[in-house]
Design brief:
Structural class of chain A: mainly alpha
Helix content of chain B: 55-70%
Strand order of the largest sheet of chain A: 1-3-2
Distance between the termini of chain B: 12 Å
Shape of chain B: globular
Oligomer: heterodimer
Helix content of chain A: 40-55%
Structural class of chain B: mainly alpha
Number of strands of chain B: 3
Largest sheet of chain B: 3 strands, antiparallel
Order of helices and strands of chain A: HHHHHEEEHHHHHHHHHHHHHHHH
Strand content of chain B: under 5%
Largest interface: A-B, 52 and 48 residues
Radius of gyration of chain B: 21 Å
Shape of chain A: globular
Number of helices of chain B: 11
Number of helices of chain A: 21
Strand content of chain A: under 5%
Order of helices and strands of chain B: HHHHHHEEEHHHHH
Chain lengths: 417, 319
Amino acid sequence: MRQGRVLVAGLVVTLGVIALAVVVRAIGRSETPVRPGTIDALATSRDACVTCHRKTSPGIVEQYGHSKMASASVRCQDCHEVKDGYPGAVAHEGTFVLAQPTTAMCARCHQNQVAQFQQSRHGLPAYVAYAGANGLTKGQLAEYRSIPEGSFAPDQSRNALAVLEGERITHFACATCHAIGAPAADGSSGQCWRCHMRHEFSLEQARKPETCNACHIGPDHPQWEIYVESPHGIAYHTGGDRWHWDAKPGTLTVRDFPAPTCATCHLSGFGSQGTTHDVGDRLTWYLFAPVSERRPAWEDNRTRMQSVCRTCHNQNFVQDFYEHADAATEAVNGFVRESQGIMAGLKADKLLTPAPFDEPIEFTAFETWHHYGRTAKFGTWMQGPDYAQWHGAYEVVKGLAELRAMEKELRAHHTNE
Amino acid sequence: MSEPLDLLWPRAAGARWLPLGRDQVMLLLAAVSEALSGLDAGLAHHAGTTMRGAAWVPVVFGPLAGAVLLVAGLVAFRRRTLASLLATVVFAASIVVGVSGAWLHLGRTVLPAAPPGQRILLDFFFAAPPVLGPLAFAFIGVFGTSAAWVESPAGSGRLVLPGRLRLQLPYPKTNAYFYVTAAGVLIALVSSVLDHAATGFADAWLWIPTAGGVFAMVVATALGMIEQPTRADLWTYVGAMVLLLAIGALGAALHLRLDLGPGGQIVPERLLEGAPLMAPLLFSNMGIVGLVALLPDHPAPASATIPLAAPAARPSSDG
């Protein structure tokens, strides 16, 4: 017996521990796991901010109490409090705070994420598209020009409609979405909280397509409607409640997301791709433009997107899809080019006033690319056939026919004069 | 206890083929472990991105401690006392770093302002940073200190500390190494169980480090308690340590397989955020420490077995 005493002791205790573990696990299966985010981490907090704001704005305290940041001991002051004289700071209860923490504050912990975001269409280009580049600091202007979308000609000037409608309207309209790239007084740009909503900063919320739906909806960029129609959207609506919305970034697999949301394809670390906060990082075309052009380094972007596609689809499927979608994009470009030719000819012949949006034909031309051309392209790339066809290409062709007729009428009218 | 290696391998009894003694190998191992633990902490803390404040401490300390220990090793050829002092300071600091880190990690499992009854829940341990991870530094500190303090006379359990201080252990140093090994395996084991708990242990592979860890820990503890181990005891111990080596290598391979992208592509983010590549190697590290504990204390060639435990040294009767 003495020969094997250590071996016997080792085996007996090992078996005992495993048996105990199995029992504990069996009991544990009947319980619902508790995560830090499900508990109010600030329930009994005596922090000055929490105590006061529980009375003045209890909603945000309730939200923040259930956030992962609160459970990780990130205090209100860590994001809001700044030194006296900090640009944009306001005096508040004996200290100085930023009412809306800027990306400079977020970057103190999330440096890479903010840098990627600021190099994207969601950065300054989104803001400039409705507000123009006037008012940007020298640094912000340089940042804007360094972004691929910032160097793209049609996007460098303010949309004339924003001027026409005026601040009283755009404040509730264009600005709501386009402020995602707004510059801040401290020289930083962008608003992380447009996607990571205050104050819960929930992974689930940021990953769900409803968040993107806040802006990517409607006649000019109906990505939400297209997604809902697509096989990906159908999978989300039928099985999304079983997906792992809180899975740790950088570890996602098809077990977590058997079908994609907007975030999966464009932003999440998935397949062989790492997480990015640059929404254009995997895109090959400037689809938002009247006539779409290839993005800089579009082949690299395509490789990145296709490697995400390849998580579920085979290479033949993906390649075939890209070839057909490229051809469809070129086809829409052809229609829009013709519409632009009509408008350019009328302008050159001084048959249009210099002012934008003061004649019906300008609205028709605008809608032809801005609403329907884009919709046709988005519908194509996101697999929404009804939007590629009836809400898109059909309307483009129809608009083009109307433009031809209007041109004819204008020229006839001019000749008669 | 007689020389374990001689009992294990009687045909090679008395042979001294290693240029270094056990303590010297242990110190070398401690130096490498410090540096690797620093690297592991750097990966876990996302060095260069979101790392702030105290998270830098182990990342800087690990390689620095490793370098200082290597220097101490060189100094030891001429000034043994100074080298011992240097190593003692480094290992004491390592214990402080490890315990402080564990305390800070533990803080993330506590929600002090949550409703009473929900402030500390077992589930938090699974979601928070690994509570026992930093204790790797403390463990290196302990086994490094054991190596730095020379046992004189051999097998007496009397350690010579810097400043001519003496510390009398209740057992020979070899046995102390077995206990230290058992403690290290316990850290690796509990850390592994907590890290894998979120998966519910649904994957059968996860039971291997659990069962293997318990076995190795019990075997090492038992060997520490036995005054005169038999050959069978020692071979069981060797088997357990080899098992730890295999578990570590297998774990690292399985973690790597999980972290690779489709088609085996390397995705840096998945390597950083996914299953930690280096964590399973703690088991291997323990296996190596455990095996090194069996080495002879003296590197110099000798013609006969050197008894370690002077008063109790007698040939094993049931080898």
